[in-house]
Known about the structure:
The chain is an alpha/beta fold. Helix content is 42%, strand content 23%. The relative contact order is 0.11.
Amino acid sequence: MKYDKFHIGKKLLMKKRLFIAIFLWLMTISLMLSIVALGKGQKVLKPELGNPEVHQLNENILAVTGLYHTAIDKGFTTNAGIIFTSGSVIFIDSGQTLASAKFLWETAVKYMKDIEKTCLILTHHHSDHVFGMRIFRAKGAQVIAHIGVAEELRGDKGYYKKFIADRMGWDSKKADQILGHVIIYPPDKKIEQDTVLNIDGDEIHLLVTPGYVPDEISVYHPSSKTLFAGDTVYEGSPLATQFGGPEAWKIWIEHLERLRKLDIINIVPGHGKICSKSEIDRNISFLKEKLKNK
Ligand SMILES: [Zn+2]
């Protein structure tokens, strides 16, 4: 009997241990699942913002990568830049959504000290670079772009937003939810050729670099050796060549050759990671190869 009791007791103890082990295992699994759900939940909370990352390239330069793009599901995101001078803040591109633009503004505010003037430079007319412009306009920013941007965006009346929504298969509610209340304004200052802006004694070079699209400009800040390349330079991905044919690609190569001669520490491309001059070489090779196969 004693022996049996001992055995029964041992069996009960084993069952108890097994029960505790299963219980702990289930707890671990549910904790892991809730962490994953929380992670996903955070993304679902603001899908219109993407996953922005702020990079301080030097004391006067910020680059923001990872902002929302309509191709974010494929890992493609949008970038923008911010230059601070002694009395102004200059934004390069506005993001594709109002949420992105707000993020850019709020990021800049954290670094601002008595900023008086604000300016927004658009690298070209595509939605992923201009849709957030309303936010900067509301803060009194002067909008500067190539004259071609003015032509493309003139008299928009919501057409461009609808075009993007239709292409994505969104109804107007979904378009409002993601893109926000987009209002397109024509630029205040239009440039046709390379232009040097002198803002509070700091030079900002607007370089007309067509090829990707005819109204493309690249923004070079010599004192920090930073190039905000817009879509003239693609980082880590094939170049989007569908907006022009072989003639445009040849022009694109010429301008990449020109940019390559600049003294550059950082290139902030319109998409992808912050990169260096070697990426210009890769872009040139890509286009040359494309021309060879035509
Ligand atoms: Zn783009």
